[in-house]
Input
Amino acid sequence: MSSLNIIRRATSIRSASRLLASTPPRAALARSYATPSEEVDPQLDGYPQLPLIPRGSLPARGWDDMLERRNFGETLHEQEELLSMWGPDVPVVDPKIAMRHFLVAVSGFVAFGFTVKYALAQDAPVIRREYPYNGLITELGGLEENKARPESLDDSE
Output
């Protein structure tokens, strides 16, 4: 094994241990049933229980496979599909704060739209036309004559 690979593995182990040591304070307040237990999982049948570290949170350089951020011959985690580079990302912003930012942005767009539609919209530059005699109802044939005629199936008309 070359000295370069040994240095790569040492830096990856050191950075992973730093990542585990800097747990957020919210993790300490988690309920006891939500914390992982230290007992051996019987379904693993001797497979090593590795820590839950997403590959996206590891440093980008110093790996044999830089795309997947892993070294050749390294044991895969049992939940590799979740922890790999192609798994879901850990949110950088807390979901409550992200929802607040989203609602502020949406309300800003809605307020801008209402401002443009109602406050900045001008009235028509002309006066609408008014007809005498109650809008010429009797002269145009009355309200009953202006209604749509029912359609007939025969073409005799």
